[in-house]
């Protein structure tokens, strides 16, 4: 199994669920994580990643960490200072149309979105609300391109798009697609030489469907247009994702693997979860399992069955612990104060 991993956590793209997979693997195999100084979940974000902002890194004796998966704006030369040269790099993409709808709800308080009453209103005159000079502008335009380290306001020429796609291809071993999350987990399992239980998951940080908006065809086109860089990234890597499946896997084998993953997931839901699935934030009984609520989105969570044996309870808890709580626990363990 591969243990040196860089995951570029792209916002609002099912990346918290991927992170839980990495947290669990690192947790059970006693691996080290890259944390910002003092803990937390942003590595110098929204500025480009810097090794010197990492706790436990010093240029004199460069310490290598196993897993880098917290939010960062990608800058490979700096990333290479904190992970081994053999690390596997991967990221995840989401259709920019759904990504924008989700960002508008989740980041409603940012400068670009706070004064627009709806996404339609924002897109009817984006520059009335959007200021490229503002430090939080990236949440409102080409968020994926921004997280990959590019300028979200760059003009979209064929040459720029070409260079951007080539740069991403040169840096990353795999790009997952959140709309095909199960297929993505199968490819990831293969790439990392992990077993099925390591990539099984329950969706985390997902939103109550009642807070999701339906978008008209005209709005969809406006979103694609406004996020043209993201659209180019997504369509290119969605295509190569399926080419990779056809080349390395075959659709039949992929279907079998996805079926096995879903069956195991259903089995774990029966073992672990009270309601067999997610519940609204107000219905989560254990406060330590309550995800952070942000913007006007309602973020769902889980209740674990009572009366489980210790080992099963620990496994179930790992599967449903929200990102911030899990990250905090791993940080505490990794940087526990040694008694004098």
Description:
This protein is mainly alpha-helical and 340 residues long. It has a single domain (5-335), classed as Rossmann fold, CATH 3.40.50. It is 44% helix and 5% strand. It has 14 helices and 4 strands. The chain has helices at 15-28, 76-79, 96-106, 119-124, 126-129, 143-147, 158-171, 181-192, 196-199, 217-226, 228-248, 251-272, 310-320, 323-334, and strands spanning 5-8, 67-68, 88-93, 174-177. Strands 2-1-3-4 form a 4-stranded parallel beta sheet. Strand 1, helix 1 and strand 2 (67-68) form a beta-alpha-beta unit. The mean pLDDT is 94. Belongs to the galactose-3-O-sulfotransferase family. Keywords: Glycoprotein, Golgi apparatus, Membrane, Signal-anchor, Transferase, Transmembrane, Transmembrane helix. GO terms for molecular function: galactosylceramide sulfotransferase activity. It is found in: Golgi apparatus membrane. It is a single-pass type II membrane protein.
Summary?
The chain has one domain: Rossmann fold. Helices cover 44% and strands 5% of the residues. The protein has 14 helices and four strands.
Q: Write down the CATH topology.
A: Rossmann fold
The helix/strand class is mainly alpha
Question: What is the element string, with H for helices and E for strands?
Answer: EHEHEHHHHHEHHHHHHH
| Major sheet characteristics | 4 strands, parallel
Instruction: Report the C-alpha radius of gyration, rounded.
Output: 20 Å
The CATH class is identified as Alpha Beta
The DSSP helix count reads 14
Shape category: globular
Give the total of domains.
1
Strand order of the largest sheet: 2-1-3-4
Structure summary, number of beta strands:
4
The CATH architecture is 3-Layer(aba) Sandwich
Q: What is the strand content?
A: under 5%
Q: Note the gap between the termini.
A: 36 Å
Subcellular location: Golgi apparatus membrane
Family: Belongs to the galactose-3-O-sulfotransferase family.
Main location: Golgi
GO molecular function: galactosylceramide sulfotransferase activity
